[in-house]
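Researcher: Quick test of sequence recovery. Tokens follow.
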């Protein structure tokens, strides 16, 4: 008599104590995945860890052919992009002085290795802006290198690279404070009411945001909160603004800075209208130029 079939596998969780409804494509056959081409939001990183799926997050750029670092199965540090590849050097330097920063201090990430380009084709001026005589490539990314520890759970984390946004995306408020908008934008995107968001506020006293709302979800939320009648088909601009502002307050409460005034726009950011790159990243400068007058009116 053949042996009985094995029992179905338990839902994939970190400790099987909190089963989750995982789609079939993420079932027991799926052991690990690799993320690249864009930032991996921390809440997504934490989600995959919670369900027991290994995500090896990597980092690179076209000028580095295109991989610089990647997390390994044996050292998969949450929130990082792992250790540099073999024969690849990474250093973090001060934005103004170009001095090397100690581990744990944030600055501009520079890379040197066999995968780094020789230069931009027939464009020596552009090459000189990002590549020095010693072969160090200025990535334009902000980050820091984790310090080494001799013992404890962090002893394997030394040398991993942690990214915190793009240097050119940094918003400098009129108070002199530097703000990395990616932290706020990633937190805000966890709201089902927000389809897209871009944080603004350069040279202003406080931050603002350009928001593309998910109007269908916003209407459902408004009905649930009894803001509108159950048979309402749309929200007023004032009601939508107040609802989104409250969503931002909730979801970004743990961020270093909070968003003040918001501009609601109906047109999504897309590749076709020039507001997103082919890799689905928002063109910050293009959005700010498109809505320059409306953004300025937020601060009047």
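Model:
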């Amino acid at each position: 008599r053949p042996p009985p079939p094995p029992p179905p596998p338990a839902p994939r969780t970190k400790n099987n104590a909190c089963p989750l409804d995982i789609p079939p494509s993420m079932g027991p056959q799926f052991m690990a995945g690799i993320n690249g081409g864009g930032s991996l939001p921390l809440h997504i990183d934490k989600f995959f860890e919670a369900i027991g799926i290994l995500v090896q997050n990597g980092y690179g750029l076209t000028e580095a052919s295109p991989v610089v670092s990647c997390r390994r199965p044996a050292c998969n540090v949450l929130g990082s992009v792992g250790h540099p590849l073999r024969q690849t050097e990474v250093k973090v330097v001060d934005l103004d002085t170009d001095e090397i920063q100690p581990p744990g201090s944030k600055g501009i990430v520079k890379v040197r290795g066999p995968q780094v380009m020789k230069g931009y084709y027939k464009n020596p001026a552009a090459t000189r802006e990002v590549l020095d005589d010693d072969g160090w490539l200025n990535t334009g990314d902000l980050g820091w290198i984790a310090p080494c520890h001799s013992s404890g759970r962090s002893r394997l984390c030394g040398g991993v690279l942690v990214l915190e946004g793009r240097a050119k995306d940094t918003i400098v408020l009129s108070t002199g404070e530097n703000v990395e908008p990616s932290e706020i934008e990633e937190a805000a995107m966890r709201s089902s009411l927000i389809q897209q968001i871009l944080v603004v506020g350069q040279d202003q006293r406080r931050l603002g945001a350009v928001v593309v709302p998910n109007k269908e979800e916003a209407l459902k939320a408004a009905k649930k909160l009894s803001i509108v009648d159950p048979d309402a088909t749309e929200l007023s601009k004032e009601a939508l603004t107040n609802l989104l502002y409250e969503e931002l307050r909730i979801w970004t409460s743990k961020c270093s800075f909070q968003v003040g005034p918001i501009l609601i726009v109906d047109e999504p950011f897309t590749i076709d209208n020039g507001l997103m790159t082919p890799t689905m990243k928002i063109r910050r400068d293009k959005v700010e130029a498109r809505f320059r007058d409306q953004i300025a009116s937020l601060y009047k």
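Residues 275 and 287 are 6 Å apart (CA to CA).
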